[in-house]
Amino acid sequence: IKRIGVFTSGGDAPGMNACIRSVVRTALYNNTQVSGILQGYQGMIDNQFIEMNSRSVSNIIQLGGTILKTARCSEFRTVEGRKKAYDNIKAAGIDALVGIGGDGTFTGIEVFSREYDIPVIGIPGTIDNDLYGSDFTLGFDTACNTVIEAIDKIRDTAASHDRLFFVEVMGRDSGCIALNTGIAGGAEAILMPEKETAIDDLIERLEGAVAGKKTSTIVIIAEGDQNGGAYNIAKHVKTKFDFYDTKVTILGHLQRGGSPSSFDRVLASRLGFSAVNLLLAGETRRVVGLKGNEIQHVPIEESINNKAFKLAPDMIELSHILAI
Ligand code: ATP
Q: Rounded CA gap, 196 and 70, in Å?
């Protein structure tokens, strides 16, 4: 392998830059050139490649987002689009790819590497932590820290006014952010897509909080919860439970940005390093990840075809116990 192409794709996540830096420097250290591909798969189709050297990744380890930009690209889903991408990649002298993103991104390189003989490695980068093959994805820890900061602030108001706050966090099909931040932020209840909670059960929990003389109550809701989002839940709860003044906060995209945490920077650096080492060792079609404190790699198909379930049962039980 003479030249590795690195790109970010799908939603941005804190730690992507730290990961790009690690890919670039590990490759250069091993006398392998690196091209940065801008805008994910779109950049392959539009011929947007930039030469990367050690200095092009200076001063980025602390930056959120991605210096290579990211995009969703429908053309890459077509045979013609991928042919264009391959011709451009070949012409640029790129003979291996490292893609940082979510399962859509992994599906893209999986299809691509079956059609064309080019080694590929995927690195899990998404704040949702919903990928199989790594205990943690890049950006998850940072996003949780951002949410906690917000919950702490909301708690000040909730406690001062005897209010009930419904806080909606990201997680279309994963309750990881909700469960972690619910425990870290002392939420009275946590609603997650993986675990159905009936509104009546939630109300019972809230009545328990009142009976226990709590002066503020915070309910964390993952956006993918079956009850249909924070506003909807607040409306339903209000019809039967009006002890507190009720407020809704949707944290939205502020969870995606920001300077990566120490954990995410280290994870990003380790995964970037491993991805390049795998390619140089002749591996392909793997997703690198963290298992315990070890770096592991699994086949891309395995990562795409398995649903990650990362809600530790002890954490679910704990979230109930600590809310009394
Ligand atoms: P996030 O978790 O933030 O959504 P993601 O990587 O899952 O990240 P997607 O938009 O689903 O984000 O996928 C990123 C890109 O991967 C798509 O825009 C598309 O270009 C490519 N892609 C996804 N699925 C396929 C597929 N079946 N075939 C070819 N390319 C695909």
A: 34
> Which residue of 39, 72, 177 sits with most ligand 1 atoms within 8 Å of its CB, as the best mutation to test the pocket?
72
Distance from residue 31's CA to the centre of ligand 1 (Å)? 31
Q: What are phi and psi of 75, to 5 degrees?
A: -65, -30
Name the residues annotated as catalytic: 128
ipTM of this complex? 0.97
Q: How far is the CA of 103 from the centre of ligand 1 (A)?
A: 7
CA angle 114, 303, 319 (to 5 degrees): 165
The single residue listed with the structure tokens 């439970």 is 241
What's the Cα-to-Cα distance from 182 to each of 99, 126, 218, rounded to whole Å?
A: 31, 19, 9
pLDDT digits (tens, 9 = 90+) for 197-236: 999 999 999 998 888 888 889 999 999 999 999 999 999 9
- Ligand 1, atom 19: nearest CA belongs to which residue? 73
Tens digits of residue pLDDT in 77-126: 999 999 999 999 999 999 999 999 999 999 999 999 999 999 999 999 99
Best CA proximity match to 126, nearest among 66, 73, 202? 66
Take residue 114 and report the two structure tokens written for it: 């079956």
Whether the per-residue pLDDT at 158 is higher than 90: the answer is: no
**φ, ψ at 214 (rounded to 5°):** -75, 140
Percent of the chain at pLDDT > 90 equals 89
Strands 33-37 and 3-8: parallel
- How far does the centroid of ligand 1 lie from the alpha carbon of residue 86, in Å? 17
Cβ neighbours of 201 (radius 10 Å): 11
Mean pLDDT, rounded, for 246-274: 97
- What's the CA dihedral at 181, 261, 275, 76 to 10 degrees? 70
CB 133, CB 303: distance < 8 Å: yes
Closest CA to 277 of 1, 92, 38: 1
Q: Does 73 count as an annotated binding residue? A: yes
